[in-house]
Amino acid sequence: MENYFLFKLRKHSKLKILFDILKILILIYLFLIGIKLLGASLKGFGSGFAAGLIQTTANPFMGLIIGILATSIIQSSSATTSIIVGFVASGVLTITNAIPIVMGANIGTTITNIIISLAHIGRKEEFQKAFPVATVHDMFNLLAVLILLPIEMKFKIIEQLSFKLTNIFSSSGGMKFNSPLTAIVNPTVKWILAVIHHYYVIGAILGFVFVLLALKFLVDVIRSSSKGKLEVLIDGYLFSSPIKSWFLGMGLTAFVQSSSITTSIIVPLAAAGLVNIEQVFPYMLGANIGTTITAILASLVTGSYLAIQIAICHLLFNIFGSIVWYPLKIVPIKMAKKLGDIAVKRRYIAIMYVITVFFVLPILLLLIFRR
Question: Does the predicted model carry a pTM greater than 0.70?
Answer without folding.
Answer: yes
